[in-house]
Amino acid sequence: MATANKASILLLAVAVATAACSTTASAQTSRLGKLVVTGVVPCNTGTLIDAATSPAFPDANVELRCGGNVVAGGTTSRNGSFAIEADLTNALAALVGTCQLVVDTPLAKCNASLPAAGALASYLQGSLAGMLGGVFRLAPAGFSFRMN
């Protein structure tokens, strides 16, 4: 029985140590912080659409795509603004310029006279000094309309 108890205690110790290691690994991953992208989606066509002078696009689906994969997403508010959060580990490509914001919601949903096909897309901009308290903030560099 003493050998069985020792084996049980050893198995319990190994399980606790494994759990502690995985918790430490998770904590190290989350230490990278998070990426927050905020902005306003315009309801307009063209290249480098000025969000300040264009009407807003409410209820549009906005996706953060890095390397062709959707990393995070959100929906614009009634005034066209959005905020997307992603784990910086998953969105590290944003720092090297391989991420884009993409709005596949047809522009006809915000203005019936605009095309029902196509998408708005924008690269990201921000300063590397913009990381405060583990949060790295970026914004759209300027949305442009593209046909699918």
Folded structure, characterized:
The protein is an alpha+beta fold. It is built from 1 helix and 9 strands. Strands 1, 2, 3, 4, 5, 6, 7, 8 and 9 form a 9-stranded mixed sheet that branches. A hairpin with a 2-residue loop joins strand 7 (131-132) and strand 8 (135-140). Mean pLDDT is 77; it is low at 1-30.
- Strand portion: 25-35%
- The gross shape turns out to be elongated
The average pLDDT score comes to: 77
Number of extended strands: 9
Q: Report the top-level CATH class.
A: Mainly Beta
What is the succession of H and E elements? HEEEEEEEEE
Counting structural domains, the number is: 1
Largest sheet: 9 strands, mixed
Q: Please tell me how large the radius of gyration is.
A: 22 Å
Uncertain stretches of 5 or more adjacent residues: 1-30
Helix and strand composition category: alpha+beta
Keywords: Signal
Protein name: Phylloplanin
Organism: Sorghum bicolor
Topology of this protein?
Blueprint: H1 2-30, E1 34-40, E2 61-66, E3 69-75, E4 81-87, E5 99-103, E6 119-125, E7 131-132, E8 135-140, E9 144-146
Parallel strand pairs: 1-8
Antiparallel strand pairs: 1-4, 2-3, 2-5, 5-6, 6-8, 6-9, 7-8
Keywords: Signal
Protein name: Phylloplanin
Signal peptide: 1-27
